[in-house]
Specification:
The chain is of the alpha/beta class. The chain is 38% helix and 15% strand. The chain has two domains: 146 residues, Rossmann fold, CATH 3.40.50; 173 residues, Rossmann fold.
């Protein structure tokens, strides 16, 4: 493999992933880039939502927003963004995103060193290639990104997930959650319905936690998950604080950082909470818990082995047995074990 010319690297361009959860899982790799190049400027290009997530991140000096649904739509938008990058005169591009578009972008921008996995037939566009590493089930996705950097000869960093909120954001969250009696429920999952446990069972767990531990319930979710949260609320005896679909990414981060516990599907908010060290009960069905489990200090995975899981499908083509098999008692038992500590 061609060795990086690390002596002349002063400005680094990182192309982030496009999903919140995946972006959180790249933060240990971002820490390794910082450790390898402590004096370089690190600039991360991301879509608007991921850019919000990474604002104030200690291993990101600056963000470039790549908005494919807005100002950078279509081929013209891509070429315009490439022109913007070219003006920055970066020395090195590190591609966490696997798509060929990331390699095209950095090639057209004239970045002299372009490093990443040889996925999506893009190896010919990279100056420093790491052979596509299959995400074998025994490896966590954080290792997928760290392995790519190791293939480039980069080592170091803490290996921990990391996100950061501002003092103003934390003050906003504390106004809404003024004490430590809050448990968050996240009943949605953006990837698809196959990852979602049932709203009525979330409601049973939420009511039981509230009554047994004298705690209050916060329901969270993304912009298109309001109806799922309303279904949970409608099935509850206790009145929760339902902020699903009503917060920005930054506000959601701040709220989760203040919670005693998160009960959740495999989702972006799950990884956000893990980055803040929040105890987590994570319900897995169609996805693989060995590769995307939350890296939280205190965590319980709730799943049932079925012959068809993990299938990694967005929608279940049969009877959703991987989720049907998970009872409210299973999830409540996991929550009790963490709350009693």
């Amino acid at each position: 493999m061609k060795v990086l010319d690390s002596q002349n690297i002063r400005r680094i361009f990182i192309r982030s992933t496009n999903w919140i959860g995946d972006a959180v899982l790249t933060t240990p790799a971002m820490g390794r880039v910082r450790a390898a190049f402590p004096h370089a400027e690190i600039v991360v290009a991301a879509n608007p939502m991921v850019a919000e997530l990474l604002r104030y991140h200690p291993d990101c000096d600056r963000l470039l927003v790549y908005d494919k649904r807005g100002v950078h739509h279509g081929l013209g938008g891509l070429l315009r963004f490439c022109g913007e990058i070219r003006k920055e005169r970066f020395d090195l591009a590190i591609l966490f995103q696997n798509a060929i578009e990331a390699a095209i972008m950095t090639t057209l921008a004239g970045i002299p060193q372009r490093a990443g996995y040889t996925t999506d037939c893009r190896g010919f566009l990279l100056t420093h290639r790491v052979r596509g590493w299959r995400r074998a089930r025994r490896f966590h996705h954080t290792d997928y990104y760290l392995n790519m950097l190791a293939g480039l000869g980069l080592q170091g960093g803490s290996g921990r997930l990391q996100l950061r909120c501002s003092e103003e954001e934390l003050a906003w969250a504390k106004e809404r959650l003024p004490d430590d009696t809050w448990v968050a429920i996240n009943p949605g999952a953006t990837y698809g319905s196959a990852k979602r446990w049932f709203p009525e069972r979330f409601a049973v767990v939420a009511d039981s936690i509230a009554e047994e531990f004298s705690l209050r319930i916060l329901i969270v979710g993304g912009p298109n998950e309001g109806s799922i949260a309303e279904e949970v609320t409608a099935n509850m005896r206790k009145q929760p604080l339902n902020l699903a679909g009503k917060t920005s990414v930054r506000q959601l981060m701040a709220l989760l950082s203040q919670c005693r516990l998160l009960v959740t599907n495999d989702s972006g908010p799950m990884h956000v909470a893990a980055a803040f060290g929040v105890p987590i009960v994570a319900i897995f069905g169609s996805t693989d818990h060995t590769t995307t489990s939350p890296l939280a200090p205190s965590c319980r995975i709730v799943r049932k082995a079925t012959e068809c899981a993990p299938c990694l499908r967005t929608e279940c083509p049969t009877d959703h047995r991987c989720m049907t098999a998970v009872s409210a008692a299973d999830v409540l038992g996991a929550a009790r074990s963490l709350l009693r500590g």
